[in-house]
C-alpha cells in the first residue's frame, strides 16, 4: 500500500473526474491521500473532501507563503480547525486523531523564488510572520506541519530554531542539497520526494543520500508530473512510479520503499 502524502485533488483540475482519479489511484495501490491547502477556500474544500472520504482522504489546512501578500485571516483557519475537531470522528477509529478530517497544518512556509534579484525584505518578513503564526497553530493543536520551502532554507531553519519547540513535520518537495538534508535530519524532519525525481538531475543526486526513514512519497498533483507523463495532469496513481525511481537510486527493493514510506506517513500524521 502507498500513501500520497501531498496532492491537491480538491483543485479545479479534477472537477470533472475526481472520483475516477481516486479510484484509479486505489487500483494502483495508493490507498490514502493527504490533501494540503494553500488558502482558505482550498482548506474548506480539503476538509469537505476528507469528510466525504473518511479514512481515505485527509486534509491539511494552511496558507501558502505567497498568501502573505493578501493578509490572510488565521482566525478563519483556526475556526475551521476547531469546528472540524468538534465534529463526530470517523467510526474507523474514533479515539485516533486520524479519525478526524484534518491531520496537519499546511502547506505553509517560505518561498523567496519570486524575489530573486530584489531585496523584498518586507515581503519576506510577511511570509515569516505568516509561517510563525501557523507554527503556533500547529503547536497549540499538536498537529504536524507540512512545510513549503523554496530558495529560503537559511531563513527557514533559523526560524524553526527560534521556536519554543521543534515542530513535527515534513519539508514538502525537498529541493535542498546535502547541507540542507543534514540540517533537516538534525531536526528530525521528514522530506517529501515528488515526481521531479524522474527528471531532475540535482534531486537524483541527492536521493541516494536520504535515509529512507525520513522519506515521504508525494505527487503534488496536479503539478510535477513524473516522466514519461510530463505535459499531462499529474495524479496520485503515479506514486508507484516515483517509488520505483527512488528504489533504483537507493539500490533497494521497491517493497522496502513502499513499506518504509508508509510507516513514515503513519508515524508523522498518526494515520491508522
Looking at the structure, the CATH topology is TIM Barrel
Structural class: alpha/beta
Strand content: 15-25%
Overall residue-averaged pLDDT value: 93
| Number of distinct helices | 9
Question: Briefly, what CATH class?
Answer: Alpha Beta
* SSE pattern: EHEHEHEHEHEHEHEHH
Biggest β-sheet: count, sense, barrel?
8 strands, parallel
Question: How big is the Rg?
Answer: 17 Å
Oligomer: single chain
CATH superfamily: Metal-dependent hydrolases
What is the count of β-strands?
8
Q: Point out poorly predicted stretches.
A: 89-96
Whole-number total of structural domains? 1
Q: Which strand order do you get reading across the main beta sheet?
A: 1-2-3-4-5-6-7-8
Keywords: Hydrolase, Metal-binding
GO molecular function: DNA nuclease activity; hydrolase activity, acting on ester bonds; metal ion binding
InterPro entries: DNase_TatD-rel_CS, Metal_Hydrolase, TatD-like, TatD/YcfH-like
GO cellular component, one term: cytosol
Structure description:
This protein has 272 residues and is of the alpha/beta class. It has a single domain (2-269), classed as TIM Barrel (Alpha-Beta Barrel), CATH 3.20.20. Helix content is 40%, strand content 15%. The protein is built from nine helices and eight strands. It has helices at residues 18-27, 40-52, 74-86, 121-140, 153-161, 178-186, 201-206, 239-250, 254-269; strands spanning 2-4, 30-36, 57-61, 102-111, 145-150, 169-172, 190-193, 215-217. It has an eight-stranded parallel β-sheet. Helix 1 (18-27) links the parallel strand 1 and strand 2 (30-36). Helix 2 runs parallel beside helix 3 (74-86) and helix 8 crosses helix 9 (254-269). The longest helix is centred in the middle third of the chain and has 20 residues, at 121-140. It is globular, with a radius of gyration of 17 Å. It holds the Pfam family TatD_DNase. A divalent metal cation 1 binds at residues 6, 8, 107, 220. Keywords: Hydrolase, Metal-binding.
Amino acid at each position: 500500500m502507498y500513501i500520497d502524502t501531498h496532492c491537491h485533488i480538491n483543485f479545479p483540475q479534477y472537477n470533472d473526474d475526481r472520483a475516477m482519479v481516486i479510484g484509479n489511484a486505489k487500483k494502483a495501490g495508493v490507498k490514502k491521500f493527504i490533501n494540503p491547502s494553500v488558502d482558505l477556500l482550498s482548506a474548506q474544500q480539503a476538509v469537505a473532501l476528507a469528510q466525504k472520504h473518511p479514512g481515505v482522504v485527509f486534509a491539511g489546512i494552511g496558507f501558502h507563503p505567497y498568501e502573505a501578500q493578501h493578509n490572510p485571516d488565521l482566525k478563519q483557519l483556526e475556526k475551521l480547525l476547531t469546528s472540524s475537531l468538534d465534529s463526530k470522528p470517523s467510526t474507523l477509529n474514533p479515539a485516533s486523531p486520524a479519525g478526524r478530517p484534518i491531520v496537519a497544518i499546511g502547506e505553509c512556509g517560505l518561498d523567496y523564488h519570486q524575489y530573486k534579484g530584489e531585496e523584498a525584505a518586507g515581503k519576506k518578513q510577511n511570509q515569516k510572520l505568516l509561517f510563525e503564526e501557523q507554527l503556533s497553530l500547529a503547536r497549540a493543536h499538536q498537529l504536524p506541519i507540512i512545510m513549503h520551502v523554496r530558495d529560503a532554507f537559511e531563513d527557514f531553519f533559523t526560524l524553526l530554531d527560534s521556536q519554543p519547540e521543534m515542530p513535527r513535520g515534513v519539508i514538502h518537495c525537498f529541493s535542498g542539497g546535502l547541507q540542507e538534508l543534514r540540517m533537516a535530519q538534525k531536526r528530525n524532519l521528514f522530506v517529501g520526494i515528488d515526481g521531479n525525481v524522474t527528471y531532475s538531475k540535482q534531486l537524483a543526486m541527492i536521493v541516494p543520500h536520504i535515509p529512507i526513514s525520513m522519506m515521504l512519497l508525494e505527487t503534488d498533483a496536479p503539478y510535477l508530473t513524473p516522466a514519461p507523463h510530463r505535459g499531462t495532469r499529474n495524479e496520485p496513481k503515479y506514486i508507484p512510479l516515483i517509488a520505483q525511481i527512488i528504489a533504483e537510486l537507493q539500490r533497494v527493493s521497491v517493497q522496502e520503499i513502499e513499506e518504509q514510506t508508509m510507516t513514515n506517513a503513519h508515524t508523522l500524521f498518526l494515520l491508522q
